Amino acid sequence: MNTSTPTSRLLRIDASARTDGSHSRRVGDIVEAQWRRAHPHGERVHRELALAAPTHLAQATITGFNTPPEQLTPALREATALSDALVSEVRRADTLLIAAPMYNFGAPSALKAWVDQIVRAGHTFQFGADGPRGLLQTRLAVLALVCGVPGALGSPVDFLSPHLEAVLRFIGVQRVVTLHVGGTAGPAEPVQAAMATAERDARGLFA
């Protein structure tokens, strides 16, 4: 019998600039469907970066990050409000799903901006005597990553997968699983085969 509770929370981040015909969204849908089967009463929060990209860090944002809460001015509170909201979403999630394409060997700029807003000392990590320590309680992060060029993901020119994996482990995610679908700019048949493989791999994630 399924023992899922309403406290099961999925935070889904979509980073593709395409809202139609996006392969990364298709892989994200595959993963989310498996999560929903395992957690039918779970809570899902969705961040659509293509429609509402996070602002890039600015001087006021950084100043606010480094100012004690009791000393924040109204302007600094406003400058850090987005980060506060994004950090709160990440901290509440026990599962994180990031669906993203690889653009020019790296992350879409909106996804990089999201990362910069959530990697925050005292909130998602802290420094101690033994160095930095992640503060998140997120049990699992699934990276649903696609690229138009076959073989690029997981190769020496892939600066998307290792970056995201390193960031998530740095802030305390306990387990990071990466699903790759490559060659999406090519013929449909290999893409469908790669999608089928991603679906097969996703089935065991939430058992």
In short:
The protein has helices at residues 23-38, 59-65, 74-92, 109-118, 161-170, 188-203; strands at residues 9-14, 43-48, 95-101, 125-128, 131-134, 140-147, 175-182. By secondary structure, the protein is an alpha/beta fold.
Question: Mind sketching the topology for me?
Answer:
Elements: E1 9-14, H1 23-38, E2 43-48, H2 59-65, H3 74-92, E3 95-101, H4 109-118, E4 125-128, E5 131-134, E6 140-147, H5 161-170, E7 175-182, H6 188-203
Parallel strand pairs: 1-2, 1-3, 3-6, 6-7
Antiparallel strand pairs: 4-5
Helix pairs in contact: 1-6, 2-3
Could you please describe the fold and organization of this structure?
By secondary structure, this protein is an alpha/beta fold. It has one domain: 3-Layer(aba) Sandwich (Rossmann fold). It is 38% helix and 21% strand. The protein contains 6 helices and 7 strands. It has helices spanning 23-38, 59-65, 74-92, 109-118, 161-170, 188-203, and strands at 9-14, 43-48, 95-101, 125-128, 131-134, 140-147, 175-182. Strands 2-1-3-6-7 form a 5-stranded parallel beta sheet, with helices on both faces. A two-stranded antiparallel sheet has the order 4-5.
Distance between the termini: 12 Å
CATH superfamily: Flavodoxin domain
Q: Order of strands in the sheet with the most strands?
A: 2-1-3-6-7
User: Beta-sheet strand percentage?
Assistant: 15-25%
CATH topology: Rossmann fold
Number of helices: 6
Q: Determine and state the CATH class.
A: Alpha Beta
Form type: globular
Tally of discrete structural domains: 1
CATH architecture annotation: 3-Layer(aba) Sandwich
Q: Please state the CA-atom Rg, rounded to the nearest Å.
A: 18 Å
Average pLDDT value? 94
How many E-type strands?
Answer: 7
Secondary-structure element series? EHEHHEHEEEHEH
Largest sheet: 5 strands, parallel
Which consecutive residue ranges, at least 5 long each, have pLDDT under 50?
Answer: 1-5
